[in-house]
Please model this.
Amino acid sequence: MRQFLQYLRTWAIISLLSVVLAWSFPAQAASKVNPQLEQQVLEILRQHPEVIIESVQAYQQQQQQTLNQARQTFLQDLQTNPQAVIASSPTIGGTASKTLLIEFSDYQCPYCAEAHTKLKELLAKHENEVTLVYKHFPLPIHPQAIPAAKAAWAANQQGKFWLYHDALFTNQKQLGEDLYLDIAKKLNLDLEKFNRDRLLADPAIQQDMQLGEQLGVPGTPFFVMNGKNYSGAVQLLEIESKLAEAA
Model:
């Protein structure tokens, strides 16, 4: 009986996925779903609702295990080979500091703009104690996040990332093509190279985004510092207290 229920559970889930797909994409999938099968699946689920609960719980546990493993690997790499984690990402602060603060950020996120202000204060007070590493994590809800990230990446190819970065956050409400070119001109960037490099920025930005997804970054800003994760708007005193804990 137990084996039969396990078989039934597996069959029901597979069948349910077909039904859900049909509901989600009726034009494409409706013709592929047998109405009788649909009713049978629904009846099974009514009689055994624990099938869905158990399957969801098992899936969530599997996802959490994958996430924990990815974070553990990342933190081990951060301790044993920080340069591999930093890679080609822009850095600022102490070159030999023992505190590495990795930021996942979005140029159109208002909370990231708030964090940016606090981080500038932090670095001014603890310049030799902290190395800040910037990772791009543009959110799909922000239409200018990716174009701004591409512009910042292109500025980095000419050694002007942090100046460009500051200007983007300072003028966050004006994000757009006019602003990107205006900042480039004010920083005396080679505009032809700047425009070419913007077209080449996707792989680097996608690499940062994939890292963030592997770590389960829920939103921006998101920070990793000395083996701990912090998210949300950053208060200077909170960061400083965490630095004291890490010392």
